[in-house]
Amino acid sequence: PYVDAEKKVIAIAESKADIRTVTEFDIYHGESTYYGLLGKSSQGEKLAVIMSPDSGVVDIYKQADGISKSVAKKAAKAYGAKEISYVHLGKYGKTPIWEVKSGTQYYLVDFISGQVIKVEGL
To answer: For residues 41, 47, 50 and 55, what is the CA-based torsion angle, rounded to 10 degrees?
Structure first.
């Protein structure tokens, strides 16, 4: 299922966002499931694509307009995250986010502002 989802999202990103090189693919499982993809367009522009498999809605962001994965990790650590398991691109409501997992905690970091908007977990 993961590989099928990745192929489907890459095909959509190629047609809707002119993505030619994929650097990362994630599946985010929050209130809803989202597929997140980082890549470059044919013009060399770095883009982030977030897609809802349920609605088919595709959101396209310039990576330069958001924060990087490493900045999201730093934001989570400032909130008390220790060892980080992973960082996934997704959406929380209408907000594009990085989900940073540390232990049993999930830190939702706003992709645009870099602010931690929610901490979930045990």
So the answer is: -40
Q: Which residues pair with 50 in a beta bridge?
A: 36, 59
pLDDT in tens, 95-116: 999 999 999 999 999 999 999 9
- Could you tell me which residues come within 8 angstroms of residue 42 by beta carbon, excluding any fewer than 6 positions away? 18, 20
- Least Cα distance to 55 among 77, 33, 80 occurs for 33
d(CA 57, CA 69): 23
35 CB-near residues (< 8 Å, 6+ apart): 5, 6, 9, 25, 26, 27, 28, 50, 51, 52, 53
Q: Give the residue from 46, 97, 104, 50 showing the smallest Cα distance to 75.
A: 97
pLDDT in tens, 33-60: 999 999 999 999 999 999 999 999 999 9
CA distance 83 to 69: 15
pLDDT band at residue 1, thresholds of 50, 70 and 90? confident
